[in-house]
Amino acid sequence: MKFPLNQLRFLALSLPAVSAAVAQGTGDTPPEEKRKYNVLFIAVDDLNDWVGFLGGHPQTQTPNMDKLAREGVVFEKAYCPVSVSNASRAALLTGYRASSTGIYGNDSFLRDSKVLEKAKTLPQWLSDYGYFCMARGKIFHTPGGPWSDPQSWNLQVPTEGRYGHVERKPGLMANGIPVGEVDSNFDWGPTDAAFEETPDYLNAKWAAEQLAIDHDRPFFLACGIFRPHLNWYVPGEFFDKFREDEMILPTVNEEDYNDIPEGGYQPARDYYTIRKYGKEREVVQAYLACINYADSCIGVVLDALEKSKYADNTIVILWGDHGWHLGEKLRYKKVTLWEEACRMPLIIKVPGLSSNGMHCQAVVNLLDLYPTLTQLCSVPHNTANEGRSLVPLLKNVEKRWNYPTVTTMGQNRHAVRSDSWRYIRYQDGSEELYDHRTDTLEWTNLANDPKYDRIKRRLAKHIPQLNVDKVPGKGIGDTSGAD
Ligand SMILES: [Ca+2]
Ligand SMILES: [Ca+2]
Ligand SMILES: [Ca+2]
Fold first, then answer.
1. pLDDT digits (tens, 9 = 90+) for 317-335
2. Measured between alpha carbons, how far is residue 207 from residues 3, 211, 214, 223, 230 in Å?
């Protein structure tokens, strides 16, 4: 059955209010009294597809996120606007592409962009239309201070707590690698902290407490989870769930760079250091431990929502800010234009939606969340948004959706992802092209085969025409210490 969009929105949005009114025999509810959806917005830093519901790693343990996935719509082909934190989050939260604002990396402050100086962020927009917007943890790039954009929030609460102490020997990092051989934050190890004293638990507990309060307005509750961002220090109980010697490693092709242009990426020093010290399995163990820790924190919030009076009228959105390489393409970390760095989890749960529990294969972007939420929340559309509302897909996950999406990593460096293809073009004009129907690991670059010229031209049309200069960095933005 097909409905016009505005009618769908009415159906989706007013179910709780209408059924309550009908039950009381009062007829329809006057528009101004319609209960609006609340929003629970959960950001997970540096989480790639190693979650049960995406099947990215067979040994991952993410029961809480998997439960949410069964209750909502999973976007299996969701991509970041930029494959690094600050810029991805700036794009998501302002609705502008990086290439329109000049916020390409971690060191440019979003309000220093001429375009973003006075832009309304998603929480500001919702707040202008009656929402109470609150946050704790990493939503914008750096929690606390101007980088967390205090003007975006009615309430922003600082993060507290400790991840605990890790053992280390003189001259070595906690992971046993000599100091100086990998970046200082590329470290891991079990800590002595109790789960209940760690920052992400405390962020989650705070969010859970907000769900137990009577709110006189609809709310937008943002909870930012830091792990699995480096350093991978979490309580020992999470490491204990994964045995190093049993860890399954991602498939790696040592010859992968034979067909990658000079203007593209190179193998990372980290990759060879990890291999030199035989740490490949420990890396997997530590990342999975941190994901399981993040999942446990997310469970605290989701359990609280389920027990609360907001369970039936709260939209839940769970998103990672970009992907992460764990050896694929001879790299660790992010900041590339390949699938591993560009793809991340996205779940949208709208109570009462018939698509809940389904997986959507349409190609979508985090940039689409702003217009999706304004539509779901029945507030005006912000015409500055460069993304596209996903509401039609939420109503019908199989809807035809031929909108290739873009990830940017630096000025004039873009990847276009369509249903079947990834096309990369660097600033020097060099290219890569991968056919995902036969090459999900992106091993064979087809860009130099004239047979694919037509496909390249078709994909290249989606590359942004406007590519503004990078907003000068302040050199203070990246307190995470990672890329
Ligand atoms: Ca993967
Ligand atoms: Ca990140
Ligand atoms: Ca290759």
1. 999 999 999 999 999 999 9
2. 36, 7, 13, 6, 23
